[in-house]
Amino acid sequence: MSTRSLPVSLVVSLLCTLSAPLASQAPGSPPAPAAVPATGFPGLDRYRASRVAVYSDDYGERARYRAANTALPPPAATENRVVFFGDSITDLWRLDQSFPGKSYVNRGIGGQTTSQMLVRFRQDVIELRPRVVVILAGTNDIAGNTGPIANEEIEGNLASLADLARMHDIRVVLSSVMPVHNYTPRAQEFFASRPAERIVVLNRWMREYTAATGVVYLDYYSAMVDDRGMLRRDLAEDGLHPNATGYAIMARLADEGIQRALTQDRSR
Q1: Class of domain 42-263
Q2: Which terminus has fewer CB within 10 Å in the chain: N or C?
């Protein structure tokens, strides 16, 4: 059938439909940005949308500590340098106040997942030549900060971080994911996006993995959970990030874990 036998109105409609994608984009212009998939959590959706440029240009955020790493001198022969490596819980931790006089280096970046941490592990940990690395990660993976990820994939990333460290004679302290509470308005979304059962399962895997490999397990969870399976109300205002009381508990446990790592049998 030729277009001559079609009604004029139908021909016009077809031409408009076929040409619409071409008319909406000028020649040579970049493609329109894809919409960020919704997670069902408004705060997380806003966060993910705000990070599109980071995820596309510097996924691991290696630029964050590049200058600081360059300025950091090699450790002295007798120095027990420790790198604290993690997300915002590490990033916000004032190590100089919790561990005065200690050679402890903070390499936390707020919002990061284990997938991002793998990207920057060489420059932010291995090349700093610490004796010990304290890894605290996984809560943002569970929340889906960089997209959905199964517990098994988180476990693989954590095992890869530990393997890389041990290959370079760095002793590993692997920290449990901390519980989250919903006792305040600010805490509601953090709690809802981090199912307690996933935290429990991931921590169980960590305990089994560390027992099998000789990596030190740092159990923040047991010291900070309440009788309802949530983070104690007095340890965080927003349900996720520790306050001074929370960090005081963590400091004591971290110091114990570091000492265990420094004195452990290296034959394993």
Answers
A1: alpha beta
A2: N
